[in-house]
């Protein structure tokens, strides 16, 4: 979209220069042509299943079960492929020109920005990591008086509060240092650990200050209490003691501490610092707190009382700023009146540092965080990814922008009136019998509050944009153990089920509210867990048939054989093509598809079981955070590309069973082919087993080769071997009666 010359408020000029543009991806025509061809093949395959199931006579119950299972599996695969085409119909790429902003407006007319950072557990989310994120955002190339940082501490951690008090002092040196030397990496930990940087006396001085702060924080806890000698400021010590004395784990009052006030606190160069506000919301067992969505809504109301910026950035505590010019890119859209009218948020991709060379766990989520959002951007816009997202406050508040009485507006944020009102709106009873979380704010009702919030906003008519600059706007941490990766994915899947089986079902409610195409895209995500159906069936059923020399797929001489080959190669080929165009290596793509298979037998499957049990009132494991703490031994194995199977989790049992049965079925099938010379009958079964065996190579090494702490737990191996033998024996009895 070329921005025409307009007058937009004070400081703007006519004949405004171009701020942004968008263009369709060149592969769009190919995507549409291929979709038409592939759809014909899918319908042909489903016709074959219907014919075999309903027209041709079925000799026995076993044949009926096999035919029905294959039909259900292929029906799920067909739906997931069809819904994924919504991402491929009209993908777009955008580009911004932030250098043109100063030609149409002045710095003092930039929109104010409130930044929300949420943390909940100082042991899994170390406070120094949260501080590094906050410092990187405070150091934006943006007027400091326009920035307010809000930190939500749901863990109520004394250490977190103290760490931010120390960080506030360091910020007075760090911010002018970054701007004086035009440093891009404004996360101090990242900068000081970088191997290539220019050293100078000023650099070494700042680095020493940072290291001193780290040492102080690491040694500040003595028998669970903060040592007074480390809190040098009398006012901060008094505020801190008031907070800690009132805290109890089951119930604690709201704590709002203005650590930095942009109207009073200055850096060493004499410039005002951004606001830095710590919030620990009131919690009580008598009232639901709604996890992260609840914490964000408290920040939404508290910020409305204290600063009320029209732009809100939500940020994970481990996702730091990697580009100080990011807010300027956002302004390129928000200062365009044509774009602004129905724009709810601007989403940046999640990117990560610390990935090992081949990204063995597929933690980059290239499709989820980059490829698919570009596809959605051509329709109504991407979904909210939970971090790196700039909201317009109006979209979250609806018609009522604030809940501030007129006589309180523009009061100092430390005034008693402002603080009293902020405490009031952060109270655990405040949302009772209101539309918060249902019609306003971040939406309740699902563990994936980010996905659900954007879905509801787009159902209400709002749109979004995907901003994907060459330099990553944000970089975050990734889980380095397989169990953490799968646990995180399982939580997402349960949240998806909560949406699917609600009145806001993405297919029914979504198609009525947002149109069929966008509804299909959201349904693809909401139905993520049902991948477990075809993956589980295809990981066991053909292999058991192969062990018993029973054919369930077409022979090479049959025309249907080539249909299966086309469907498999077409799906994998297009997926590979899209990954390569996104700059992904072959090995990373291979690991991503391997993780898709692993997920189908673990987190997809177990989330389905857990949600089913929860639906009938059987208690299951509660919400848990993904750990951001790095174990040295695990980090070393991750860096070497070794999969981590050390946790004796039940999720690894079906995965190990599939690896075992596929290996034996492939070996026995290969022996028969070499012995009998008949390679036609069981060819597709052999190809499928061989592909799964290749994907399971890390599992075989974890069982039989490795002797480190990341090897497969003995109890998992024993249970899987017993269940595999039992399943093979039961299948031999069933197939012998066929």
Q: Identify low-pLDDT runs.
A: 1-14, 227-232, 246-250
- Give the biggest beta sheet: 8 strands, mixed
Count of helical regions = 26
Proportion of beta-strand residues: 5-15%
Gyration radius, rounded: 28 Å
Distance between the termini: 64 Å
Strand order of the largest sheet: 7-8-4-3-9-13-11-14
What is the approximate shape?
Answer: globular
Mean pLDDT: 88
Class by helix and strand content?
alpha/beta
Percent helix range: 40-55%
The total of beta strands comes to 15
Membrane topology: Multi-pass membrane protein
Transmembrane segments: 29-49, 61-84, 522-541, 561-584, 596-613, 651-674, 681-700, 712-735
Keywords: Cell wall biogenesis/degradation, Glycosyltransferase, Membrane, Transferase, Transmembrane, Transmembrane helix
Pfam families: Cellulose_synt (PF03552)
Give me some keywords for this one.
738 residues; alpha/beta; eight-stranded mixed sheet; three-stranded mixed sheet; 26 helices; 15 strands; disordered N terminus; transmembrane; Nucleotide-diphossugar_trans
């Amino acid at each position: 979209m070329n921005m025409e010359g307009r007058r937009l408020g004070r400081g703007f000029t006519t004949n405004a220069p171009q701020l942004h543009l968008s263009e369709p991806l060149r592969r769009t025509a190919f995507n549409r042509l291929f979709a038409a061809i592939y759809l014909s093949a899918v319908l042909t395959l489903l016709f074959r299943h219907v014919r075999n199931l309903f027209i041709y006579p079925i000799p026995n119950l076993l044949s009926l079960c096999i035919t029905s299972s294959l039909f259900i599996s292929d029906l799920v695969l067909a739906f997931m492929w069809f819904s994924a085409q919504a991402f491929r119909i009209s993908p777009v790429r955008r580009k911004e020109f932030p250098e043109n902003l100063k030609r149409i407006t002045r710095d003092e007319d930039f929109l104010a920005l409130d930044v929300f950072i949420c943390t909940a557990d100082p042991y899994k989310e170390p406070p120094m990591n949260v501080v590094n994120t906050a410092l990187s955002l405070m150091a934006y190339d943006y007027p400091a008086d326009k920035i307010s940082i809000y930190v939500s501490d749901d863990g109520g951690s004394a250490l977190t509060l103290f760490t931010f008090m120390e960080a506030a002092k360091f910020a007075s040196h760090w911010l002018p240092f970054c701007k004086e030397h035009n440093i891009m990496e404004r996360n101090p930990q990242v900068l000081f650990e970088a191997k290539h940087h220019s050293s100078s006396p000023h650099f070494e001085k700042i680095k020493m200050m940072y290291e001193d702060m780290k040492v102080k924080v690491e040694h500040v806890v003595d028998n669970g209490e903060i040592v007074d000698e480390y809190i040098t400021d009398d006012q901060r010590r008094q505020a801190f003691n008031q907070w800690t004395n009132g805290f109890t784990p089951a119930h604690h009052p709201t704590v709002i501490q203005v650590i930095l006030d942009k109207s009073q606190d200055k850096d060493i160069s004499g410039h005002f610092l951004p606001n830095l506000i710590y919030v620990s919301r009131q919690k009580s067992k008598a009232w639901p707190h709604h996890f992260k969505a609840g914490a964000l809504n408290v920040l939404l109301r508290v910020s409305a009382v204290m600063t009320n910026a029209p732009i809100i950035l939500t940020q994970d505590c481990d996702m730091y700023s990697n580009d100080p010019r990011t807010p300027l890119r956002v302004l390129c859209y928000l200062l365009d009146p044509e774009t602004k009218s129905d724009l709810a948020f601007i989403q940046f991709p999640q990117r990560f540092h610390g990935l090992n060379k081949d990204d063995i766990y597929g933690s980059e989520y290239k499709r989820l965080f980059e490829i698919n959002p570009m596809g959605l951007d051509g329709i109504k816009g991407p979904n909210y990814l939970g971090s790196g997202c700039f909201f317009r406050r109006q979209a979250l508040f609806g018609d009522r922008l604030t809940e501030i009485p007129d006589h309180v507006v523009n009061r100092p944020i430390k005034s008693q009136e402002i603080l009293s009102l902020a405490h009031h709106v952060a109270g655990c009873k405040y949302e009772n019998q209101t539309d918060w979380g249902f019609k306003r704010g971040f939406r309740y009702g699902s563990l994936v509050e980010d996905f659900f919030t954007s879905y509801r906003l787009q159902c209400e008519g709002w749109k979004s944009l995907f901003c994907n600059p060459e330099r990553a706007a944000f970089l975050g941490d990734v889980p380095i153990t397989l169990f953490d990766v799968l646990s995180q994915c399982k939580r997402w899947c349960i949240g998806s089920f909560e949406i699917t089986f609600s009145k806001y079902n993405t297919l029914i409610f979504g198609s009525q509210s947002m149109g069929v195409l966008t509804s299909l895209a959201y349904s693809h995500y909401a139905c993520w867990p049902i991948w477990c159906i075809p993956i589980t069936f295809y990981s066991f059923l053909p292999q058991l048939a192969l062990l018993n020399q029973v054919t369930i797929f077409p022979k090479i001489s049959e025309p249907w054989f080539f249909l299966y080959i086309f469907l498999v190669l077409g799906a994998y080929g297009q997926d590979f093509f899209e990954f390569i165009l996104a700059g992904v290596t072959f090995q990373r793509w291979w690991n991503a598809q391997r993780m898709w298979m692993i997920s189908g037998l673990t987190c997809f499957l177990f989330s389905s079981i857990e949600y089913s049990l929860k639906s009938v009132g059987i208690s299951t494991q509660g919400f848990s955070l993904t750990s951001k703490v790095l174990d040295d031994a695990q980090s070393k194995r991750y860096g070497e590309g070794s999969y981590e199977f050390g946790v004796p989790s039940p999720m690894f049992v079906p995965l190990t069973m599939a690896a075992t049965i596929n290996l034996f079925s492939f070996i026995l099938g290969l022996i028969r082919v070499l012995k009998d010379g008949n390679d036609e009958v069981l060819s597709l079964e052999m190809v499928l087993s061989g592909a799964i065996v290749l994907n399971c190579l890390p599992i075989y090494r974890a069982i039989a080769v490795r002797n480190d702490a990341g090897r497969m737990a003995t109890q998992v191996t024993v249970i899987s071997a017993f269940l595999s033998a039992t399943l093979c024996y039961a299948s031999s009895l069933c197939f012998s009666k066929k």
